[in-house]
Amino acid sequence: MTGSSIYLSTGERAISHAEHLPASLQLRAFIPFLIASLVIAASYGTSFLLPEYLQSLGMKSDVAGAVISSGMVSTMICCCVAGRIAQRIGVMPTIALASLVMAGSMLCFAAAPMDIRAVYAGGLLLGAGWSVFFILAPLQIIHHLCPNARIQYLTFVSGTQMAGLGMAAPLSRLIAQHAGSIALAYLLFAAACAVAAVCVKIAGDAMRDRSCLPMTRVAITATDTSALLRARTAVPIAMLSLAACVFAGLATYQTPYAVSRNLRPDLFFLTFTITSVALRLSLARTMGRIKPARLALALLLLTGASLVLFLLNHGSTTLYIVATALFATGYGLSYSTLNGMAVNLAGDHGVSVPVTSQIFTLAYFIGLFGCPFLCGALIHVFGADAMLVVLLVLLCQ
């Protein structure tokens, strides 16, 4: 089965130029898609409770580390093969399958009290399900919208996902308080992931009669990757990878930084989540009206300014909150902006748009997973300030 037959056989009308695509998605298609994004992100967010959950089962902390590491490995592998699967069975069916894989992961975690080996399978499935959903979800948006509307809708999706990630831990703890076990929370999230798969199916059916771009080259290949890295599309991809490095370093080692200043690290995570979610959902329409290059530069400057404030802060809670809010604005709005910028440039330069979007996400994961090792070494040898200086230098490259 070829990539073109996947999309044209479902009743979608292929459009040769992206500018001729509609500027909006029908609510009957977009709302179920957002619900699925919220649920899958929240399910992934339950991984933050794994150390606490496994300790309650008598396991050592290194078990949680091994489970999370296995999830990272499956994330990187599945990012590379997701496009090949989508090219054979379609983007939306692959996203629905990823939702069911996430359901399997939640079931494995829920089964840990009966057999602790299940958590290792859960970690692998978690990385596989989340990475496939995360890397392919933007394709469905890009596939159906004109370039000027993409940033707006990608921002709505990323805001919904951030809300899901933020609500996962408190919701799971609330369920555990009433049920006496986090295992029940994992069971409920498994059921929610199955519902998410149904939502994806509903969204896919609603988009069948909509105009779209043909996506005959969805699989990541060496030829397409080389072409996009030689083109201007490499610029927003590199910017995103560096931004992910900054976020990973700042988030992973926020506790050592906060302790060195007698601050509370939970203020960082609370302020970051609330600010980024609120801005993504409230400013999505406005962001779609601004030229992507100007918007990306402004967000980059805000992120840099926040790092300077973190570096200069010697113990002020107010300055800590302000710096975090600036960082949440700069970094929090950059993902969808740079994503839209990358795929629009790809379309202008004849580079595969689906492959560009996937390489963009892959670069994000590389920055996210790779940077904490460097930052950890810097903090161990030179302290938290050295980490901030290096992150600022990376951002200015």
TrEMBL record:
Molecular-function GO terms, alphabetical: transmembrane transporter activity
* UniProt keyword annotations, A-Z: Membrane, Transmembrane, Transmembrane helix
Q: Which domain of life is it from?
A: Bacteria
Transmembrane stretches, start-end: 29-51, 63-83, 95-112, 118-139, 183-203, 234-255, 267-283, 295-312, 318-338
Q: Kindly give the Gene3D superfamilies that the UniProt entry links to this protein.
A: MFS general substrate transporter like domains (1.20.1250.20)
Name used for this protein in its record? MFS transporter
